[in-house]
């Protein structure tokens, strides 16, 4: 028994010694490894070979823990990024916008006559004042201003550190030169009327004063006009400014500077590229370049819509209602902007037929404005009855307009111009032309007889040719008359072939073309023959607005930020570049418009505008149709477009310096 216990004890002791030696060996191994690596952490090589060391259960635990660690790290970084990471604009990116029309004079003194010029001027030039994206009037090239108690003196301190795009310093002399040039009648600026009889004084190198004869509450808004560099333009004589090549190579103080201009083989400008001005006195633009590409039409293979769909351009300056479905696509945002603009029919009161107020009233009564807005614009426009728009002094939401009534229109017109049926008018035209042909034939026969000295007289009227000629005349008359017109009105009782015939002129775009055709049909219903003439937008100023070569003008008027109606209804504004398209002249209206310009009290101003509107509506120089919507197509790659209300189409670009395509993220920790 003793020997058994002894042997068992020896085995236990032997095993204990063996385990002790094994533990010591492991400890020695670890100590040796630490001495070799001098680190408590695994190497990359060891980490990727850990799979060979761990058992199956150990592998499961290890890799599960590793995955949880990685997920936790990613989650924490995402939380930190969302809370403290801020996306900010980054300089870069090129933007290309398609525009209908082409530039003529990229000069702030004339840009109001061409929407394309306005787009370019608004990006290249800046004025003493500007409108921000919320339509608030704020200083720009001016740092501050002061207005005298009587509202007749405006003193401006100029901003320091402003440079022209050619690196020359902006000075007070540039401001004086600009307004002196506007006031020069040889220059022919449309802004001259706003600065007539205004004295400009240089107080010092940083200060300028405007002195008015009479208080003009809206004067500040006129100072948004861009300033010209004196060192560039002073060498050009006033009568040659419009012809100067510098109008197409502008130098301004705006956020973008002229880079290059491309013309086609015919010399027509196809594209203008602007680049960011790094020394702009406010926040320099983020976009590297902004290019305008010019088109003659919206439709067709070479039109604006096709260019947008084929991604040749990134956006469109304006999308007419009828093209909205075609331009709606991925990566294009359509912005509907509020624009103080109205479309109207202006009667040329210098024409004989339209000189009578009741005749103009009758024509207005014959036109169904509601159907025009419904059929052509799908009710996406606001009907109006007068020139004072919502948001302006004197606006009356309950203002009544001319009621649509064909019967009432005919009653008024019957007082001035009797009717003649289409059949009788047709017969009269045929007979008159046949008679004229016979007379011409006799004259020709007599002439031939005198030349040949013979007694033979050609009696063509007795030949069979007369029947053939008469048939041709009948065909010509049929082609000249519209089957839809049931009767006409004549102007001369002694010659009923002289009918009331009016020329309706408008811009050759699809929307206005449809409206003009509808109006032509309405006037046919009251016996008026209407000839619709469509004029290309590029030629409209030269062919129509300068000449007033129309009886009725279908046109859109942009009122702008200033409620002043002087440019549209004062008799001094009848001739171009005035905007009195009706040739409306009335002494009491002129006096009221002059008085409005000096009125300071808002309540009194509203009353005066209300009286003005009532007088205009009573005289019917125009029929006011609707306020359209303005739709702007912009690529969704553009960030920070933040405009809702504009006074002019070019105002869509009011915060273009803040637009960006590229961005970066920065950490911003709050304490």
TrEMBL record:
This is Solute-binding protein family 5 domain-containing protein. The keyword Glycoprotein does not apply. The chain crosses the membrane at residues 60-80. Keywords: Membrane, Signal, Transmembrane, Transmembrane helix, Transport. It holds the Pfam family SBP_bac_5. GO terms for molecular function: peptide transmembrane transporter activity. The keyword Transport applies. GO terms for biological process: peptide transport. One of its GO terms (cellular component) is periplasmic space.
